Amino acid sequence: MGSARLVALAQQRWILGIIACVTVASPMLILMACFFIFGFSETPPASS
Q: What keywords would UniProt list here (predicted)?
């Protein structure tokens, strides 16, 4: 019974770790996406 509780606790900690990583990384990903979108939209196309 103890090992099952440890496995459940480890899975919960793993999920919380993923949530924490996503929470920390999402603002950086959003900033990078906005930078790429605005950067490509502001630069004139080289073909013209």
A: Membrane, Transmembrane, Transmembrane helix
Q: Which residue intervals of the chain are DSSP H helices?
A: 2-42
Collect all residues with Cβ–Cβ distance below 8 Å to 37 and sequence separation of at least 6: none
Chain center to CA of 44: 30
CA 48 to chain centre: 36
CA atoms within 13 A on the CB side of 2: 0
On whether the pTM is more than 0.70, the answer is: no
